[in-house]
Each structure stands twice: as structure tokens, then as C-alpha cells.
Amino acid sequence: MGAGMAKSIAICAVGDELLAGAHPDLNSPFLARALLEMGHEVRQVIVVGDDEALIAESVERLARSAQLVFVTGGLGPTLDDVTRHGVARAVGSELVTSPEALAQIEAWYARSRREMPSSNLRQALVPKGAKVLFNPTGTAPGFEVACETSRVLVLPGPPAELQAIWSEVVEPLLIASAPVECLRLVRSFHLQGLSESVFADQCGDWMGRDENPLLGVTVARGVLTVRCVARGQNEDQVQALLDGRADQLRERFDQWIFSQDTSDPAEVLVRLLEQRGETISCAESCTGGLLSAALTGVPGASAVFSVAHTVYSAKAKQEVLGVSEQLLRDHGAVSEQVAGAMALGAAERTGANLALSISGIAGPEGGTPERPVGLVTFGVCYRGRVWTEKRNWAPLAGRAQIRVWATSHALVRGVRALEGRLDFDQSA
Amino acid sequence: MGAGMAKSIAICAVGDELLAGAHPDLNSPFLARALLEMGHEVRQVIVVGDDEALIAESVERLARSAQLVFVTGGLGPTLDDVTRHGVARAVGSELVTSPEALAQIEAWYARSRREMPSSNLRQALVPKGAKVLFNPTGTAPGFEVACETSRVLVLPGPPAELQAIWSEVVEPLLIASAPVECLRLVRSFHLQGLSESVFADQCGDWMGRDENPLLGVTVARGVLTVRCVARGQNEDQVQALLDGRADQLRERFDQWIFSQDTSDPAEVLVRLLEQRGETISCAESCTGGLLSAALTGVPGASAVFSVAHTVYSAKAKQEVLGVSEQLLRDHGAVSEQVAGAMALGAAERTGANLALSISGIAGPEGGTPERPVGLVTFGVCYRGRVWTEKRNWAPLAGRAQIRVWATSHALVRGVRALEGRLDFDQSA
Hints:
2 copies of one chain form a homodimer.
Chain A: E1 8-14, H1 16-19, H2 27-37, E2 41-48, H3 52-65, E3 68-72, H4 83-91, E4 95-97, H5 99-111, E5 125-127, E6 131-133, E7 142-147, E8 150-155, H6 159-177, E9 183-192, H7 196-203, E10 214-220, E11 223-232, H8 235-253, E12 257-259, H9 265-276, E13 280-284, H10 290-296, E14 307-311, H11 314-321, H12 325-331, H13 336-350, E15 354-360, E16 375-382, E17 385-392, H14 399-418
Parallel strand pairs in A: 1-2, 1-3, 3-8, 13-14, 13-15
Antiparallel strand pairs in A: 4-5, 6-7, 7-8, 9-11, 9-12, 10-11, 15-16, 16-17
């Protein structure tokens, strides 16, 4: 934790759903990570249901030992949301309607061109004297209030809202009120095709908690994001620390790194195509539209993307993409040969420079000893040349996960094709 | 908690990694869910790092208010694992080597045909008087110990080990020692097209915390899930409570309810089609594959789904689906007319009984005063007849959210078409 500048921090996560086993608490890990990168360690998290007395008791207790207490969730408009009541009780204040909070909620509804239901009035209630924190994406404003010598920051529970209010409001507020005296810079690397444990094994003690740079790893949608956070007294020193670790990472993990900017391989691919004035299409079987959805999820995708096909049945592969019946019979729909023919067919029929295809067995049914669940074949057709590949994922990972991994995998293969890093001559 | 038969339960999850933002705590949701299904509600979860004093303090405090305290994690062989020390301190016992625990660890190594490192001796330590709980998959035995009037159950942290020890050892132990005397039943309703606040407004005090049934609401992917949990002494009484609330919910919210089984409208739609031996296709613009991906996300979708198209450009709408240039020019690509033509084209060209189409402006760019971001038009073609609709979502919701809402909306329109609840005569 270093030089005693660090604050003692606790989190109280509120929500019946967190205790009903429906959802893990994702906000606390997010906050803990973000705070750790600022040099602060979270010492304790308490998760309680939507229970006013228990919220009050927890906040009060945490405020006795922590300088900063975050409370998340339970700020919705419905009667079961009682976080503001619990916090008011903890700090011994009454709840009052904040004109500022009300104005924010009304503005949200005005922007949405919808009428504000009267239940939302409840969301304008804050403990008397609280400072309202603007919620950039939802209707529930957050607020800050003092409890004994602690600062209590109360934030909305939906993760997207929590993350937006953190980065736009809370993080700047913390930096402004307690300037970090040592410089802190972050550099990220996004990898595809490597598991968290293999990464951890291969990077050894770089992940130690006292390392500088501090290395953190998160995994989402088949993408491993490595964040390096370096600290030091001046920019040269911190950049040198980051450069050193970056070199080591590139040396060991270059084949898996696809980006330093964004963890979304679809975005990397769309931007690359844009820069080159090229176009893409895709042909999907087991992913059934996820690849197309990922590409069109990138704002501005229309500059490079016009059409794509989900060809779930053998008949559709023949009719829509011209895959030959013979090929399907000889090799089966899940084969490198058919994946290659799908990519070629998609490129020829849509006129796209680049076409990606996926055909696999996502399960839970449909596996055979030769073609087990988790087998996925890929095709890339770039400027008329075809490259294919097959992968085996663990059947146990499940249908949804296999489809998501296959999608990220195909997108990164597209990036590699544009970068000239796929060996089209070596393909089956 | 109602009739006082259910146990008051708390969990203390231990592990530095849980506070470093690397991993959410998945054990607590697992235990909470499993306990809830036995009729017990978890009232509180505390997450602390590998810190002996804090573990001791947390366990002691939880044992004062809960009858059953679960402690998870921190039972590894390394020096940073101090859960057994913290628990021993909380219950005021010394740690002793348990011959039974030692035998289990030795047996584990014998089965793995590996030599036991001496560090594993540490895992045989338990507070004096503790009952050892057999770990079916790992080296760390769990144990149970009394703390004041509470039972404290200490379990290994790796989720696979936790889940194995739960189902093979802990659950049978709880059932044997405390049969559930108060009956508790759950019924869920899944709604689409209604916000949490509007629902709350219309259901009034049904959501109060002392209501029986207790009503809880969660929102995901544009679907609102209402859980009713009723408690009572016997099945007739509890079923009657649920029936009463279910009737009221149906009376007020029938037009939005699409399922009682699953919150996934794609699953409802695929199952309905399967039962009727009918087939589906879709044609997407702004959702760009999400609809197709949702349908193929349902295991067994191949029985009803063969092919779908993403037609992002005007040209693709013409070429792939036969939408006329005239129609596109007269009404624009985002119009009920074009959405209707897309659905009709998809049905005709794929031979599917049911075709769904979506064309809209997901943003952030591309909006105009007449066609703002958030405007989405839908088409349904069922057995040759076409129905269309338009919706306006708040631009602020953002591209990703608008696409997800539009997808759920279209799927539920498909369900309604099959149920005979779309008025095809009234369509534009």
C-alpha cells in the first residue's frame, strides 16, 4: 500500500437479489479494482438485502473503521429499495427531497421523451445535507454524506450505471479531494486465445501484489485484459517501468495480443477495415449471428459491413452460400473444408474483401466421438484466398461460452488476416 | 423471515483475491441459492481478505445474530491462508492437528499418486473440538465448530470444491439436523415492454417488505422478472397465496407477461414453434444478428430455424429480401413499411412460417428530427400476413441497450403472433 497516503475503504453492497443467489455482486470487484489502481485497498465488503435496519447498522459500523464507505444498489424507485432510508438512519439525518436530484431525474425523462412516473419522486430523496452525485446514464442520482469522520458515497446498483458514475463523477471527485501524490499510469493489453491460469503460470511473479507495475487480469467474452499500473515520482520513471513490462509481455505473449486500445476485437477489426477502405461479411452456423452482431455493435460499422448470413442447416449452407452437397457429405458440416467453402461463398456472393465463417458444435447435444461438443471450425477468405482452422473447447464450458469464444476467435483471425499474419499457404 | 422456522444465516467469504477486484465472490451466490431452495434466507455476507484478526472479528459478530455461519476460502496450505486461525480465535479454541483430517489429506495424495508436501500438514489443523467435513475433490477438509449458540461451517474456497462439499456433505448434514418446517414456494413471471418504475407504480404496495407473497423485481436484457415468494404452514395455504397474487398480476399486467418458465423470450418462442411444428427466420438491420443469435442460443433451435439474414445496407435489403427500391425511397429504411417488406421477404425467401424483422436507428449517429436515435420499427410475417409496429426508446440508453431491447421486443412479438394475440388487420 505504500506511503500511508492510502485510505481505508469498505463497501456495503445492497440488494435482495445479491443474497438470493441470482446475481453475484459485480460492483464490489469493479470498485475494488478501480480503487486499488488509485493506491487504495478495500478492506471489507458487506452484502445485505434491501433491509433498512441492516443497511443502517452496516454503514454505521463500516464508517467507524473506514475513511471511505461505498454503498451500492437499492436506489431504485420501488418500495423495496430502501438504501437511502438506511443511510439516512445511519447518519442520523432525515430524508428530504433534493431539488437538484429531482431536476436530474426530470431532465432524464425529458431527454427520454417520456413522462416521469410518480414513483420516481422517491429517487430524489437524500439525507439532509447530502451532496448529490450526477448519474450520467440512469435515473437514480447518487449522493455523498458524512458519517462521523467518514465519507459515505452512495451509488446506483446497475453495473452500467455504477461504472459510468464512477468514471465520470466519483473518480474525479476522489482525485480532486485527495490528490494522488505519486504519479500513476496505466497501460492495457488485450489477448485472445489464452486462459487466465496459463497466463498466470507463464508470467510468474509479475502478478505479485507488491510488484510495480501492478498487473491485473480480467477475462470477458474470451478476451484476457492485462492492466499494468505503474507508480512513481515522475513521468519518465513511470513510463520506463511500463515500457520494461510491456517489452516483457510482448516477448512472451505477442501471438495472443490483438490490441492495446480496446478489448473488443470487433472494434479493432472494423477500424482496420475502415482505414483500408475494405469490407467484411460473415457466414455463421453455430454462433448463429453473434459474429454479425459483434461487428454491427461497433458504431459506424455500416462503412465496412453490408450483409451477413446465418446458415444453420446444411440446406442453407448450400442455397445461400453455394457450399457443395458433395463437400458437406464428404467432410460433414463441421469441418475445415466446409468452413473454408462458407467463407469463400460469403466473399463471392457479397463482394466483401474479407469474409469470416464459423461452423461448430456448441452443444449440449450433437456431439459425436469424432466431432465432440466444443469442436469449432473457422474459415477466413481475404482477397480471394482461403485459410481454415479448427479448435476444440471443453464441452463443459457450455453452449453460450463456446459460442462467445468462437466469435472472439473468428474476429481476431480477421484482424490477423488484415495484418498479414495468417499463413494462407499453410492452410488445409 | 415469517414464522421463525427458517434459520438466520450469514456467510463470511475470505480471500485477498476477492478484494483485489480480480474475481467476484461466486461461492456466496451459490450457497445463498442452495439455502434459499431449502427455505433459508441468507441475511448478510461479509467479504474480507486473508486477515486473521478481521476473520475472527467477522465470524464472532455474525455468530451473534445468525444461527448458521458459513465461512468460505482461505484453507489452502500456504502461509497466507489463515482462515482456520481466524475461526479458532473467534471460538476461543486452540488449533490442533486432526488425525481424521490428516488421514483425508494423505488419502488424497495417495489417490493422486503424488507425495504430500509438508506444507499440507497445515491443512490438518482445526480448532479443538471441531467436526471434520470430508472434501470430496480437494486437499482442504472443511470443519464445523460451535460459536456461542451458532454453528460455524468452514468450507474450502475453490468453487468446484465448495460445490462438491456442499452437495455431498453439508446439504445432507443440514437436512438431517434441521428439517424445514415452514413451507416456502416461489412463482415467477417474466414481462417485456414495461420498466421497473412503471411496474412499481402500478403494483403499489404489493412490493412492501412484509407482504406475503413477497414480491421481488429484477431487470435483464429488457425483461422484467417478478418473483413471488409465499410462506406458510402447508402447501394449500401457500399455493392459495400464490394463486391470489398471480391472478392479480395477470389482471393488471397480462399484456406484458410472456412466460412463467424462462426469462428468455427466444426460448419461449423456439419451444412454441417446436410444439406446433412451425419454423422461423429473421431479417435484421440495426440489431445486426442479435435476433438470430438469440434464437440459435436456444439448444435445439435447429428444429425450427435454418437461415437468417443481416441486411445492414439498403442494397442488401433489396438484393437479399427483395424490398423494393421505391418503398425504401418513399418511406426510408427505418419505417414500418420497410420492416413489413423485410419480414415478408424473409418469409417468402426462406419458406419459414414466421419471420421477424427489425430496422431502426441504434445510434449514436444517424438520427434525424423525424427519425431520432432510438426509433425502431418491427415487422412480423406469420402465415403470409404482415403486422408492423414502431417504438421509440430513449437515445440516451445507448446503442447496445437499444439493440438488446429491440431484440427482446421482436421475440415477444413473435410469441404473440403464435398465440393469436397480434391484430394483423389493424397493422399499417
